[in-house]
Design goal:
Elements lengths: L11 H11 L28 E17 L4 E17 L5 H13 L4 E17 L3 H13 L1 H10 L10 E10 L2 E9 L6 H19 L6 E3 L12 H6 L3 E11 H6 L5 H18 L8 H12 L6 H4 L3 E7 L2 E11 L11 H9 L8 H24 L4 H10 L4
Parallel strand pairs: 1-3
Antiparallel strand pairs: 1-2, 3-5, 3-6, 3-7, 4-5, 7-9, 8-9
Helix pairs in contact: 2-12, 8-12, 9-12, 12-13
């Protein structure tokens, strides 16, 4: 830039100045960036990722609504559907593998899915004069959840979200610090922005006005939350995102003919893999959930920073009459069908293609993601379960791109 300050605006002149300074042309400069002008700062180009569509994904899924005022999930119906899942990625073999797992499940009756919990948390901290004040503040907050919920609903400030509803408060006192876990539901949005605003309101307006002690310092996020940080607390208990279950019962015929392995080999792999996970201190006990979740996230405009936490998974497998029952628990799947990247035309189109665009669709979407993730788990595990894991090797050798 010849000593000039780097242009930061997203007007056409600034975008072009950045492109010219970096010597960019061709694929980067030939893309219309207008739809992305409000997406991020210092917009300079766009990355195009190829999208495959894999299916059919046969599944039985629940329909849910939140009970007021505590935000418990109530299942209102169960339906069957067939879905073709969009996957944005450049990982050779991923789409073919997910297809194989989906086919094995479809020939065995399909997937079944449930949503158990829906929360998004912001972990604030109040630093008090001493432990006694921190304990008194914790007791006050624990006793006034309903009052704080009403207080948020009645505030007239434009920046306080009406969609982020306070459900629970959990406190953790250590020394002079009162850590507070504000737990919200945020409708069909993933919700980090709106719940951050409401946590800020509670921290800076409600607590100073109503609490019996005045903290010396307030920190909006003090690292006890599950926001983009995989943790044992959220693996075990859920509570940051949707807690979703998926399962299917594979017939021995489908395992042999479609997955090209045996039930015994799958269970032997599960035994070895579980102990390997324990030995390495893994919080997740699964094979490759991040690949499926990242690909769906990229296609549908989800926050890619949440792939790590959303991919925390616990897989199970056990022999049943005529086959093997396999299950997957995703304790913190962070997804949305409104707001954020879902508003971009490409993301909206892919969400629309699976019946998940707009309000009232987030629980359906979470269950589709869980079923697709289990489909990939089945196929990848089967490839690893073959003698010497030869199928897994061949998939990477033949579909892995450049050597």
């Amino acid at each position: 830039m010849n000593g000039r300050r780097w242009p930061r605006k997203n007007d056409a002149e600034s975008i072009r100045a950045r492109q010219e300074a970096l010597g960019l042309d061709g694929p980067v400069t030939g893309i219309d960036l207008t739809p992305f002008a409000n997406a991020q700062e210092m917009l300079t180009g766009a990355a195009v990722i190829p999208v495959s569509v894999v299916g059919p994904l046969e599944l039985e899924l629940g329909e849910y609504e939140l009970e007021e005022p505590f935000g418990r999930l109530a299942e209102t119906a169960r339906t069957r559907d067939t879905v073709y899942v969009p996957l944005a990625h450049t990982e050779g073999g991923l789409s073919a593998s997910l297809y194989r797992g989906a086919r094995a499940a479809a020939e065995s009756g399909g997937f079944r899915t449930w949503v158990l919990k829906d929360r998004i948390t912001r972990a604030s901290c109040f630093v008090c004069r001493g432990t006694e004040d921190a304990v008194e503040l914790a007791r006050f907050l624990d006793a006034h959840v309903a009052e704080m919920r009403r207080w948020l609903e009645e505030r007239s400030e434009e920046w306080i979200s009406r969609y982020a509803k306070l459900r629970e408060v959990e406190t953790h006192v250590v020394g002079p610090m009162c850590h507070v876990m504000w737990a919200f539901t945020t409708g069909d949005a993933c919700g980090p922005n709106m719940m951050t605003r409401n946590a800020f309101a509670l921290n800076t307006l409600y607590v100073p006005e109503h609490a019996p002690v005045k903290p010396e310092r307030t920190i909006l996020e003090a690292n006890m939350g599950g926001d983009k940080k995989p943790s044992h607390r959220y693996f075990e208990r859920g509570g940051h995102g949707k807690t979703v279950l998926a399962e299917c019962t594979l017939s021995e015929d489908a395992v042999r003919r479609v997955l090209r392995t045996t039930v015994d080999d799958l269970l032997d792999l599960s035994f070895a893999g579980t102990h390997g996970a324990v030995a390495s201190g893994m919080q997740s006990v699964a094979f490759t959930p991040a690949s499926a979740i990242a690909a769906i996230f990229a296609a549908t405009g989800q926050d890619l920073g949440m792939v790590g936490t959303s991919s925390m998974a616990h897989g199970t497998g056990r022999r049943v009459e005529g086959g093997v029952n396999v299950g997957l628990r995703l304790p913190g799947l962070e997804v949305g069908t409104v707001g954020g990247g879902t508003t971009f035309p490409y993301a909206h189109a892919w969400l629309e293609s699976i019946g998940c665009s707009g309000p009232g669709k987030v629980y359906r979407f979470a269950q589709i993601v869980a079923a697709a993730t289990l489909a990939l788990e089945l196929s990848a595990s089967a490839a690893m379960a073959t003698a010497g894991s030869e199928n897994f090797f061949r998939a990477h050798h033949e579909r892995g791109g450049l050597r």
